[in-house]
Design goal:
The protein has a 9-stranded mixed beta sheet with strand order 16-15-14-13-7-12-11-8-17, with helices on both faces. Helix 9 crosses helix 10, helix 9 packs across helix 14 and helix 10 packs parallel to helix 14. The protein has 508 residues and is of the alpha/beta class. It is globular and about 80 Å long. The N and C termini lie far apart (52 Å). The chain is built from 15 helices and 17 strands. Strand 14 and strand 15 form a beta hairpin. The protein has 2 domains: 146 residues, NAD(P)-binding Rossmann-like Domain (Rossmann fold, 3-Layer(aba) Sandwich); 279 residues, Dihydrodipicolinate Reductase, domain 2. The structure holds 6-O-phosphono-beta-D-glucopyranose.
């Protein structure tokens, strides 16, 4: 059963609801954090919003020893705990009728045979039409085994009028070489257009809004260049520590965990030229140009900083340092804070540094992009009139307080000409009645629709590693990172890094 094709349908027509056609998802790693906190709740939220087909089906694949009811129970609990939209019995009932569970290990041929039979059965009773996405919510070290099994059991091969896709999560390797190896594994089994790499930041409304703000308006683009922009600061600060993720995080660190993907993608969206359209290919071409134009970072002691959180206070509670966290070796040199200065060598951006920073256990949770402008070349007011005036800035507040702020100077009411900074705010919450969907809702829907603009391609991943590899290698030669107290804004070296350029970090 395939959806009727309307030849007049314009995929960009926003008046038409984007509803997935007949399909199902096979979820590997159902017991993991990602599945429970993000994937399963997002599937329920999509169903609740009426964006999944009535016969949508979810197959959980996990090790033996689980019963089918366990799977339904796990999804139920994760939905109850983490879904964004209200729990409705009738939605749950219809959705859960399409749940199946296949027990087995990744090297277990019989389990993959059973997976095929289960998919056939769902095609017959739920009308999934042979359309399945395989979601690998598992450590990359297992990708090879699973991809190999999917190939061996002819599960990755679509029929003439059906599709098969694979969804992978970061880490896309831990350096350029391993990223290539990982890609080669997937490449042997799936066509490039069937591989969906998730960078969940691209699924966030406020991140997509960077494109809307820049290219749907006439106001910003004329000043979006080195004539007017002094520098750009991209901050992704978290107040949480590594929680229960020691096994993943130790040896990975802040740069690999989020700069390689989320922050470089954000930088690319801020810096790209206008794409010819929002089709995946047009967007990708522009992002690639930016990632290729990043100068190989030099003087790394001065243009990068890294740190590791020590014990301190977070939200009024005393919290342990990284080295005291459960599962972390006392001699770990993994960084939990990273800052880098990148220079994009294009006519538009030459001389405009992009400062990227991220860290765990910082003062508060905030992600923002701040475009800081040069000061007016001349001030006709007396020096004391403008002593409280800083640079104009445009801040995209990615989260949690979604919106945008423009900072500029205004006259303070009174008899004297006193000018100081004021803010003009746009807040999603105050403007739109509908709450922003979770990034995973948007991205899973796009996978089912086969709509790729929000998914990075392998070449972008490679170019990102090319930028980071020399930095991470440099840090590895230097030994332990500088420590910073939990609840602070990072190590002193990060402050010095900007001070050397005559700038300061924003305190969001
Ligand atoms: C993930 C990182 O990609 O993003 C985590 O692996 C981080 O370390 C998370 O906590 C943050 O996501 P968000 O959407 O809460 O900003």
């Amino acid at each position: 059963m395939t959806a009727p094709v309307n030849p007049l349908r314009d995929p960009q027509d926003r008046r038409l609801p984007r509803i997935a056609g007949p399909s199902g998802l096979v979820l590997f790693g159902v017991t993991g954090d990602l599945s429970r906190k993000k994937v399963m709740p997002a599937i329920y939220d999509l169903a609740n919003r009426g964006l999944l087909p009535p016969g949508f089906s979810l197959i959980g694949f996990a090790r033996r020893g689980w019963a089918e009811q366990d799977f339904a129970q796990i999804v139920h609990d994760s939905v109850r705990e983490h879904a964004r939209t209200e729990f409705r019995e009738e939605v749950w009932h219809q959705l859960s009728e399409g749940f199946r569970f296949v027990p087995g290990d990744f090297d277990d041929d019989a389990a993959f045979d059973q997976l095929r039979r289960t998919m056939d059965e769902l095609d017959a009773v739920r009308g999934t039409g042979g359309n399945f996405a395989f979601y690998l919510a598992i450590p990359p070290s297992f990708f090879g085994a699973v991809a190999g099994q999917l190939k061996k059991h002819a599960l990755a091969q679509p029929g003439t009028d059906s599709w098969r896709r694979v969804v992978v999560e970061k880490p896309f390797g831990h350096d350029l070489v391993s990223a290539r190896e990982l890609n080669a594994i997937l490449d042997q089994v799936f066509a490039p257009e069937a591989i969906f790499r998730i960078d969940h930041y691209l699924g966030k409304e406020t991140v997509q809004n960077i494109l809307a703000m820049r290219f749907a308006n006439n106001l910003f683009e004329p000043i979006w260049n080195s004539n007017y922009v002094d520098h750009v600061q991209i901050t992704m600060a978290e107040d949480i520590g590594i929680g229960g993720r020691a096994g993943y995080y130790d040896g990975v660190g802040a740069a690999r965990d989020v700069i390689q993907n989320h922050l470089l993608q954000l930088m690319a969206l801020v810096a790209i030229e206008e794409p010819t359209s929002f089709a995946a290919d047009s967007l990708r071409v522009e992002k690639l140009k930016i990632l290729r134009s990043v100068a190989r970072p030099s003087r790394l002691d001065q243009t990068t900083a890294r740190g590791q959180y020590a014990a301190g206070w977070a939200g009024g509670v005393h919290v342990p340092g990284f080295l005291e966290e459960e599962g972390i070796s006392g001699s770990s040199t993994t960084e939990t804070f990273a800052a880098v200065r990148l220079d994009i060598q294009t006519r538009r951006w030459a001389g405009v540094p992009f400062y990227l920073r991220t860290g765990k256990r910082l003062g508060r949770r905030v992600t923002e992009v701040a475009v800081v402008f040069k000061k007016a070349p001349y001030q006709p007011f007396g020096a004391t009139s403008t002593e409280e005036l800083t640079e104009n800035a445009l801040v995209v507040r990615v989260q949690p307080d979604e919106g945008m702020t423009i900072r500029f100077g205004a006259k303070v009411p009174g008899t004297a000409m006193e000018i100081r900074d004021v803010n003009m705010d746009f807040a999603y919450g105050g403007t739109f009645t509908e709450a922003s969907p979770e990034a995973y809702e948007r991205l899973i829907l796009d996978v089912l629709l086969g709509d790729p603009p929000l998914f990075p391609q392998h070449e972008e991943v490679e170019l990102s590693w090319r930028i980071l590899d020399p930095i991470i290698e440099h840090w590895a030669r230097k030994g332990s990172p500088e420590s910073y107290p939990a609840g602070s804004w990072g190590p002193e070296s990060a402050v010095r890094m900007l001070a050397r350029d005559g700038r300061t970090w924003r305190r969001p």
